[in-house]
């Protein structure tokens, strides 16, 4: 699809399976999909192109999307 919404896809996974899921999402992004990943997993978030934190309803860009 053109947009992939992933809500906590790595929340209950071990490190190896987390890496597999993140790699699959990266593949979709590289194919041109907009991948939106909601997570509490800092390792998964670090793999993203941009990072937006939500805290008490306030959105703050930690790493804005470049380009």
Q: What keywords describe this structure?
A:
single chain, 67 residues, alpha+beta, two-stranded parallel ribbon, two-stranded antiparallel sheet, 31% helix
What does this structure look like?
This protein has helices at 15-30, 42-46, and strands spanning 3-7, 34-38, 51-55, 58-63. The chain is α+β, with helices and mostly antiparallel strands and 67 residues long. It has a two-stranded parallel sheet with strand order 1-2. Strand 1 (3-7), helix 1 (15-30) and strand 2 form a beta-alpha-beta unit.
Brief digest:
The chain is an alpha+beta fold and 67 residues long. It contains 2 helices and 4 strands; from the N terminus they run E-H-E-H-E-E. Strands 1-2 form a two-stranded parallel sheet.
Provide the succession of SSEs.
EHEHEE
What's the alpha carbon Rg, rounded to whole Å?
12 Å
Shape: globular
Report low-confidence residues grouped into runs of 5 or more: none
Number of helices: 2
Q: Main sheet?
A: 2 strands, parallel
Mean pLDDT comes to 94
Question: Total strand count, please?
Answer: 4
Q: Into which percent range does the helicity of residues fall?
A: 25-40%
Estimated share of beta-strand residues: 25-35%
Structural class: alpha+beta
Distance between the termini: 22 Å
Q: How do the strands line up in the largest sheet?
A: 1-2
């Amino acid at each position: 699809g053109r947009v992939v919404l992933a809500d906590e896809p790595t929340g209950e996974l071990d490190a190896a399976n987390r890496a597999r899921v993140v790699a699959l999402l990266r593949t979709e992004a590289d194919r041109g999909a907009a991948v939106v990943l909601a997570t509490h997993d800092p390792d998964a978030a670090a793999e993203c192109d941009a990072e937006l934190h939500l805290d008490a309803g306030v959105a703050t860009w930690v790493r804005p999307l470049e380009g």
